[in-house]
Amino acid sequence: MQFIPNIIFILLLGIGIYYFASNVKKLVRNIKLGKDVDRTDQKSERWSNMIRIALGQSKMVRRPVSGFLHIIVYVGFIIINIEVLEIILDGILGTHRLFLPVLGASFYGFLIGTFELLALLVFVAVVVFWIRRNAMNIQRFLSKELKGWSKNDGNNILYFEMVLMALFLIMNATDVHLQQAGVGNVISQFIYPLFSGFSLESLHVIERISWWIHVVGILIFLNYLYYSKHLHILLAFPNTFYANLKPKGQFSNNKNVTKEVQLMMDPNADPYAAPAEDEGEPEKFGASDVTDLNWVQLMNAYTCTECGRCSSVCPANLTGKELSPRAIMMKTRDRLEEVGKNIDANKGTFKDDGKQLLGEGYITQEEIWACTSCNACVEECPVNIDPLSIIMDMRQYLVMEESAAPQELNAMMQNVENNGAPWQYSQMDRLNWINEE
Amino acid sequence: MTVPVMADLFAEGKEPDVLFWVGSAGSFDDRAKKITRAFVKILNKAKVNFAVLGIEESSSGDAAKRAGNEFLFQMQAITNIEVLNAYNVKKIVTACPHSYNTLKNEYPELGGKYEVLHHTQFIEELINSKQLDVSSANINNSTITFHDPCYLGRANSEYNSPRAIIKAMAGAKLMEMKRAKNNSLCCGAGGAQMFKEPEKGAMDINDLRTQDALETNPDIIATGCPFCNTMLTDGIKNKKKEESVQVKDVAELLAESLSL
After folding, report:
1. What is the pLDDT of residues A320-337, one digit of tens each?
2. Which chain A residues contact residue B186 at CB under 8 A?
3. Fewest C-beta in 10 Å: which of A28, A362, A384, A433?
4. What's the CA gap between A131 and A137, in Å, rounded?
5. Cα–Cα distance between A303 and A53 in angstroms, integer?
6. How many Cβ atoms are within 10 Å of A197's Cβ, its own excluded?
7. CB B71 to CB A431 under 8 A?
8. Residue A243: CB partners within 8 Å, gap ≥ 6?
9. In this structure, is residue A180 part of a structural domain?
10. CA of A395: which chain B residue's CA is closest?
11. Does residue A176 sit in the same domain as residue A304?
């Protein structure tokens, strides 16, 4: 009978890890629905970007207040997780504070003291985050794409963190041995007096309950990630690693178009020649659905934590246009999830559902045509997400597959075609400016 | 005004050191043509051995590409590259950040590999190498704020050259806007917006950007892009400030300050 807690713990741990692993599998499968793009070059620059931007949070502090608070939560999260290692081992082995005798009271106390201090700081930072989200008039938390589930999701994460940090401190405060030994109880010693009327036994029960809820909470949180914007805590790393390294103004040249243009301009090409071999379906130009995007763009969508810094600097969004780069990423993820579920429901193959990312319920043409391609969103994103590339791929689809450009743009393009300038001037007049003073 | 044309030089068996890519706006837009002429004055003053393509130049294809017409873009690019390569062009300077960006970044893959400079970068080089003497440049105690064009700034990380030129003029007081350099706000013309009405919204982007600029109480809003110039000029008109605030290209300011 004495091993029942150990068995329950191992069972819970197993279930938690199993579900997490199956979610990760689904995540990877969905990301791989994207087209191939080679991002394996310049390895050292990629590593350095990951270390600076994801690990070092360098772009977070562009907004000093939220950046600083975020770093507290981030550092706290990573360091307090060292304690989770002890919790897991204690749970499996049925021990209590396994590391105390191993590390010695003073070093163990130093570690626990650090964790407690960080737990308090994280708790405070998270409360400030909650106030910023719910009680202050911060525009990027009030946008329409942040209503409903997205707003709840953001708050859920904050509640999770508050509860986990509080439980960690209560667990230590009600650990009578720890309090009496005075090992590392830098914060919990002030919580301990709150329990002064409690019997030893009830203190022990509270300590155990806190311990169990804490560890089960961590496992639930782990499995909440896949359904939440909070995936960035994992994906920020690959996302910054695989991000575009070229100048931001360089948009990729569509290779299929190059082939066609070169064929058209080759004076020796036979326009009536049959294709050399069966080429299958002609390649679709641009993107109208998630499977037309590349896998980095899809990973971007899962990485987005909906902070809205992109939209808060977007000139179109700032002037009240429909376009919000954050919404582009959120809709891409929603549609990708829908496609993934469709594949799961149809035994591994996608069954046409008559929907696509560019269209009803997702991204509208109005949003696509509001973009100035200014790259402010790309510059601003703390984890190097590129909403602009998705917008541009969709423009390509609209123009090259649907001929659905706004009328004025059609006129502009016609001019370029006819007279080599976006306006209706003859190419023969290109030097007139010399004599016009 | 001396403007050598590539075909003429070629006929004489000469090759210029640098090709000045004028761009469609610089060739046809009345306001932008003034920028073109100002830059040519600077080139002549510094005795730069340059040429233009003239009637052999065609749209870079930037607007077509940002509008989604990759096919038209690549047709333009490959046609232009044939011309540029036939003249053995090695170095290009342009006063349009959009041409600059696409020539520099998007042409190489299609066979057009050149050293491409924005005119502010080129002018800064002329100043630093003492080929252009700016010791007499004077701009009469003017407060100048510089608007970073997206395709020069964020797109290609060039923030210093235009500012270096402004600072080289005596009497120039450079004031930064609250949104500057990599945090700069677009004028509203990029991504082919120049050629269409904006989507519906609460206000126009150029008006918002003009507000940013006016907060610095400038005498002059300087920029380095013909499209930004148009957008901000319109913004100033909308604010009824055209009497007190001028919108000028950095090249125009330098040419004026040197009394060219």
Report:
1. 999 999 999 999 999 999
2. 315, 372, 374, 376
3. A28
4. 10
5. 14
6. 7
7. no
8. A39, A49, A296, A384, A386
9. yes
10. B68
11. no
A432 is a domain residue:
no
**Structure tokens given for A391:** 């917008």
User: Do A315 and B208 make contact, defined as CB atoms within 8 angstroms?
Assistant: yes
The gap from C-alpha A349 to its chain's centroid, in whole angstroms, comes to 26
Structural domain including A215 reads: 4-231
| Positions in chain A whose pLDDT score sits under 70 | 1, 271, 273-281
Is residue B251 one of the residues assigned to a domain?
Answer: yes
B27 with B88, same domain: the answer is yes
| Partners of residue A253 in chain B, C-beta under 8 Å | 70, 74, 106, 109-110
CATH of residue A301's domain is 1.10.1060
Alpha-helical segments (H) within A225-291: 232-241, 255-265
Tally of CA atoms within 13 A in the half-sphere of A222 that contains its CB: 20
**Each residue of A227-277: pLDDT tens digit?**
999 999 999 999 999 999 999 999 999 998 998 888 888 777 776 766 656
pLDDT tens, residue by residue, A45-90: 999 999 999 999 999 999 999 999 999 999 998 888 888 888 888 8
CA-based nearest residue to B162, from B187, B179, B182, B145 = B145
Residue A61 forms contact with B (CB below 8 Å):
no
ipTM metric: 0.95
User: How do beta strands B170-174 and B220-223 pair?
Assistant: unpaired
Does the beta-carbon distance from A421 to B27 stay under 8 Å?
A: yes
In chain B, residues with a C-beta closer than 8 Å to the C-beta of A430 are 22, 27-28, 54-55, 57
Asked if A181 and A314 sit in the same domain, the reply is: no
Q: Which residues pair with A294 in a beta bridge?
A: A35
CA distance B117 to B135: 24
* Residue B109 with chain A: CB contacts under 8 Å: 253
CATH number of domain containing B83: 3.40.50.1860
8 Å CB contact of A422 and B155: no
Cα–Cα distance, A253 to A89 (Å, whole number): 53
Residue B1 lies in a domain: no
> What DSSP assignment string belongs to A383-436?
T---HHHHHHHHHHHHHHTT----HHHHHHHHHHHHHSSSSS--GGGTTGGGG-
How many domains does one find in chain A? 2
A152 touches B at CB < 8 Å: no
The two tokens of residue B98 are 């959009």
How far is residue A372's CA from residue B186's CA, in Å, rounded to a whole number? Answer: 8
| A59 reaches B (C-beta below 8 A) | no
Using the beta-carbon criterion (under 8 Å), do A373 and B52 form an inter-chain contact? no
Q: Which domain does B52 fall in, by range?
A: 6-125
User: Residue A63 in contact with residue A141, Cβ under 8 Å?
Assistant: no
Residue A255 covered by a domain: no
Type of residue found at A148: G
Give the DSSP letter of residue A284: P
Q: Shortest CB distance from A408 goes to which of B57, B196, B204?
A: B196
Closest Cα to residue A374, out of B191, B92, B28? B191
Same-domain pairing of B252 and B226: yes
Q: Can you spell out the DSSP letters for A59-77?
A: TGGGSHHHHHHHHHHHHHH
